[in-house]
């Protein structure tokens, strides 16, 4: 079951769409990229699958998108809306923040401020296309909490090989920046989304719920910063 509501932020109204687990052990707050909304294949796959496993998924549609604009506003405004929306959730479970592309960058920048216990970065834009020298790796590392990166093999904003050792990274074979796979490739699009869902669940179990499955009610308490 999903519910939605508009929440006021300094940038205008944002939209929160909540896909609630029956017995939630984790809350996953996800926002979208700079050129799309919350209906992308990866966000939709997580919102459909994870609640059955004890993970409440909340999708944040940024104010610029709610207002019908075509182009995202500046990164600082995305962070401001994310923080304001998160404050209004008042979750009682451990909070994991994340998103795709620009949403992943915002989540990494804000994770510690939000007291999150994890960060899920989908298609993290490590650099602008063709500009590897303009690295955004410091943003990813600044999350200060366990972080999972799910990256397409053919992502022009950062292939898996461009990430340094020590990054917890899952590769979608053949995937592009939208995690779309070739029609004639070895994986179907459903296969690719299954990789995403299963990798996310495994990571949540390992890093957030302390070895128990997300749905078994043994989630770690929400903290105010990185775990030791």
From TrEMBL:
Domain KANL3/Tex30 alpha/beta hydrolase-like, residue spans: 26-203
Region listing for Disordered, in residue ranges: 206-228
Signal sequence residues: none
Pfam family, one: Abhydrolase_11
GO molecular function term, any single one: hydrolase activity
Highest taxon of the lineage: Bacteria
Keywords, comma-separated and alphabetical: Hydrolase
Protein name in UniProt: Hydrolase
Gene3D superfamilies registered for this protein in UniProt: alpha/beta hydrolase
Claim: Hydrolase is one of the keywords in the record: yes
InterPro entries found in the cross-reference section: AB_hydrolase_fold, KANL3/Tex30_Abhydrolase, NSL3/Tex30
């Amino acid at each position: 079951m999903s519910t939605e509501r508009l929440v006021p932020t300094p940038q205008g109204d944002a939209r929160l769409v909540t896909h609630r687990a029956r017995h939630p052990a984790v809350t996953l707050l996800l926002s979208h990229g700079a050129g799309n909304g919350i209906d992308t294949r990866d966000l939709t796959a997580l919102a459909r699958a994870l609640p059955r496993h004890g993970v409440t998924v909340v999708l944040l549609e940024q104010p610029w998108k709610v207002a019908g604009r075509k182009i995202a506003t500046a990164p600082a405004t995305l962070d401001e809306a994310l923080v304001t929306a998160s404050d209004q959730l008042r979750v009682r479970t451990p909070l994991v923040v994340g998103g795709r592309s620009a949403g992943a960058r915002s989540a990494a920048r804000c994770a510690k401020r939000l007291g999150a216990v994890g960060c899920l970065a989908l298609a993290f834009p490590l650099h602008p296309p063709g500009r590897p020298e303009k690295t955004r790796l410091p943003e990813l590392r600044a999350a200060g909490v366990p972080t999972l990166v799910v990256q397409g093999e053919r992502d022009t904003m950062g292939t898996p090989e461009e990430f340094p050792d020590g990054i917890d990274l899952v590769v979608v074979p053949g995937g592009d920046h939208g995690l779309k796979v070739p029609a004639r490739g070895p994986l179907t699009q459903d296969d690719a989304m299954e990789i995403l869902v299963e990798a996310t669940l495994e990571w949540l179990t390992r890093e957030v719920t302390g070895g128990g499955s997300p749905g078994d009610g043994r989630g770690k308490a929400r903290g105010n910063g990185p775990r030791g």
